[in-house]
Amino acid sequence: MGKQKQTIEEVIGEAFYKDIELPTPPPIITISDRIIATAGNFITVSGLPKSRKTTWVFMWIASALLKKPVFEIQVNIESTDKIILIDTEQGVFDFQRQIKILKRTLKTKKLPANFEAYLFRKFEPEVILDSILKLVKEKRPKILVIDNLTELVTNPNDMLESKKVIQFLKYLTAEFNLVIVCLLHLSKSNLSTLGNLGSYADRGSQSVLKVSIDKDTQISTIEPVMLRSDLYFNPVSILYDPVTNDYTQVSTPEENKRSSRKFVLMDLTNEDHNNRLGVVFQTEKNLIYSEIVEELKKIYGVGTNIAKQQIIPYLVGNKFLNSDKGIYTLNLHRKTNK
Questions:
Q1: Distance CA 253, CA 215 (A)
Q2: Which of 58, 95, 211, 319 has a CA-to-CA distance to 83 between 20 and 30 Å?
Q3: Measured between alpha carbons, how far is 133 from 85 in angstroms, rounded to an integer?
Q4: How many structural domains are present in the chain?
Q5: For the stretch 229-246, what's the b/e string if a residue is b when 16 or more beta carbons lie within 10 angstroms of its beta carbon?
Q6: Is-contact 187 199, C-beta < 8 A?
Q7: CA-based nearest residue to 140, from 88, 81, 77
Q8: What are the helix (H) ranges across 73-158?
Q9: Distance CA 20, CA 187 (A)
Q10: Which CATH number characterizes residue 283's domain?
């Protein structure tokens, strides 16, 4: 694994710093226009199990393949650049569900040729490491995703074993000028990345990001822990929407808590609702679900969750709005009691 043995003279010659002006490397991954990763680096995405770390990384893959932002994430690679995903945890069926969501996001029935995925769940760490090296040498990907880094060691608390894996990542990024995205579990006891492996990964990463999930709302949020190359970005949150059968960007749980203290639905009179809906439907006679959500957010001054979970059910249940197969219209026959 790694380079063949070099002489000390060769090592010193390669390590010698040349005082020359280098061009600024273009960002490969950005979130909210903040630099997350450039070529020749690895980053760490950590979170508790089931916090949707994998879902976020699939959003990055979608951005790269679509060549456009997805939930404020922008991944900049050429259409000829390859992305390789190494999955060490999921079985085929669970992984296929993620692939289906990716295909739906891409609006395609077949995965693009420049994306490849490999499932190594049943193999030992040394076999996975050797396989990764062979794939990188032969395929020369621009982005390598390892989900989950913990499975590349037998014991994440073993200092020598953990150091060996992190050194392997440094070698790959330096030798092949790619970006490696490492997913890591957080320890439930102290919410730090797991063991010595996590500590070494955090120290060697260009960026460290954390994914968390709010159990009450099921909102998943990604936020910066450490960015070496840019200022921090504001947390970004997503929520699975059963109406659209897809993820949508929403307000963060903290934003929802702040706005919920300011907004009390029952404080509004029927006249308040009629006036606001009159503005919403002033130019349009009908709106689809995503459109009515955005309009209500603006006219009521609330976030996505309040619009979806409070206002729309109230307006439909109290017959301010008619809903038919996902199309919303103003109920013109409702009595306008104050």
A1: 10
A2: 211
A3: 13
A4: 2
A5: ebeebebbbbbebeeeee
A6: no
A7: 81
A8: 92-106, 125-139
A9: 43
A10: 1.10.10
- At 281, list the tokens: 């439907």
- Give the strand order in the sheet containing 207-214: 115-119, 83-87, 143-147, 179-185, 41-47, 207-214, 219-227, 236-241, 246-250
Listed residue (211, 187, 184, 163) closest to 51, CA to CA: 211
Average pLDDT rounded to a whole number, residues 181-210: 87
Task: Identify any residues that bridge with 238 across adjacent strands, giving them in sequence order.
Answer: 220, 249
Helix, strand, coil percentages, rounded to 5, for the chain: 40, 25, 35
Q: Which residues pair with 227 in a beta bridge?
A: 207
- Say if residue 144 is in the same domain as residue 47: yes
Lowest mean pLDDT among 2-11, 104-113, 140-149: 2-11
- Give how far Cα 70 sits from Cα of 23, 178, 257, Å: 28, 21, 25
Specify the higher pLDDT residue, 70 or 20: 70
Which of 183, 207, 239 is the endpoint of a domain? Answer: 239
Domain that residue 88 falls in: 19-239
- What's at 69, amino acid-wise? P
Query: For the sheet containing 73-75, what is the strand order?
Result: 34-38, 27-31, 73-75
Taking the whole predicted model, whether its pTM rises above 0.85 is answered as: no
Check if the beta carbon of residue 80 is closer than 8 Å to that of residue 142: no
Instruction: Provide the 8-state DSSP code for 61.
Output: H
Say if CB 22 and CB 136 are below 8 A apart: no
